[in-house]
Amino acid sequence: MKNQFLLPFSISAMLFLGSCDKNGNVNFLTVEDDKKLGLQVSQQIEATPSDYPLLSETIYASSYTYLRSLTDKILNSGKLSYRNEFAWQVKIIKDDNTLNAFCTPGGYIYVYTGLIKYLDTEDQLAGVLGHEIAHADLRHTSRQMTKEQGYSTLIQVITGESDPGTLATIALNLKNLANSREFETEADAKSVEYLSATSYACNGAAGFFEKMIANDNAPNQPQWLSTHPNPDNRVAAINTKADQVGCNKTPSNPPAYVTFKAGLP
Predict the structure, then answer these.
(1) How many domains in the chain?
(2) Is 226 part of any domain?
(3) Selection from 6, 30, 12 nearest residue 20 by Cα
């Protein structure tokens, strides 16, 4: 008889623990948790150049200035829920062999030189960055990390009560975090919405997938591309979203983007 009351109590406790955020999604971590976890992960990334060789901001100051100007246009689109709460810092990882970008909880954005050099236009880069920004702003990343790592583990990391190796493992694995199909689709759609309020072609992210298709799926692509909606479906969904929004789809490739790519090591 006692056990009949335990299950409802457990469910109630979990529902009480989680709460709806600005996007209407239930997340067991708070926004403050996202901010603290993101900061800790970013510090771990800074401390492990063998895993994440960050490009020097002193030597490549002009590259960072350009990239941050591009990112700021997306962040200032007026479409983000947590524009003022999250850090929104962007860093470049020197690795020409990896076509990837990712964003931690709390808005720490990382993009690989391999991806930048692979993309043909500024619109494509803006589209991919919009996608990664969406993962943090929709709080996909912390929700997925909670699912994979467990709520108690993340709380121990946030409060400094976990083994240091746990944070190191989380930081190392974040670049290959496998978001759900739902999360990837939502992030693609949000990228269109963000870019619709900028001068960029709002379907810029589709260009990345179109190139992947043309190249018969390039090597060293992000792990999540092999387990999520295939590129053809994503191109179609992104373009459909752009048509629904009624935004600009005309690509452009200003000289500044060519100069930016050429200035990377």
Answers:
(1) 1
(2) yes
(3) 30
